[in-house]
Amino acid sequence: MTARVSWGYAVASDASPLFYEFWGERGERGTATPVLLCDGIGCDGYVWRYLKDDLGTRFTLHPHYRGHGRTAAPKDPARITIADLADDVACVLDDALVDRAVIIGHSMGVQVALETYKRHGARVGGLVLVCGASSHPLRTFKGSASLEELLPTIQKWIQRVPSVFNRLARTLLPTRLAYEVASRLEIRRELVEPQDFMPYLEGLSRIDTRLFIAMLSSAGQHSADEILPTIDVPTLVVAGGRDGFTPPERSRAMAETIPGAELLEIPNASHTAPIERPHLVDWTIRDFIARRVDSAEPGVLPRPSDAKI
What we know:
An 8-stranded mixed β-sheet has the order 1-2-4-3-5-6-7-8, sandwiched between helices. The protein has helices at about 50-55, 80-95, 110-120, 145-160, 160-170, 175-185, 195-205, 210-220, 250-255, 275, 280-295, and strands at about 5-10, 15-25, 35-40, 60-65, 100-105, 125-130, 235-240, 260-265. The protein contains 11 helices and 8 strands. By secondary structure, the protein is α/β, with parallel strands linked by helices. The two termini are about 25 Å apart.
């Protein structure tokens, strides 16, 4: 089944237009809780390819971040912080007339989800935190702080000759060569179909490199660690056992600190677990929301045949 997608534009606090798409059916209060999907940096939905259909008729919102997909870059280039993105989530909920939603975040979207809870807690009915970290993700990227240390230098070079870097990105990223490099650096080649990952590279190639590196820097400095022990909504943490971008110990630490959090760790999955083991990830998310958020009877969803972990 392919969901029928509609779209709209919300208006941010700084008057920036925010594109979002939505699908599913609006239920009565107390039935199926709406869902809002938060991407990782550089993404505009590729990682939700399977979840989009597996959520069935549940009302689902998917905003595009500032400068990503169909949302334009803000007039003020500094307005790309995690706090800005969290406030944008609240604006999208307002525009869609949704009081509360389960916020599902992947990668940097985990930080956006947590910051949304921090700033707009009444709008959050539950959290699903997938392959991410609650703070300073660059300090553990590929097991070291090298990227965090190099980032200021990279940012200076991009600011000097942005047109060169933008041209390189548009030429090199949406190619089979880039896919081959990614499959050697992180993604599980035997579990990912090229057509599932290429949309990420194509979308990334269209983002202004100055905005991307500035947002990455902001994400690297962000921390939501202080709110983890205070979270009082149902929370599911999903980790890839071979995630080199946000190592699984980061997810374990979140799950141990958030009261009542559940943890799914998939030993053979990487940072792109939702497209590597979609049946397991999606079943777990659907079951969690039905059990913990919608207050449905447990065990109503048949476990997928490949749910071996």
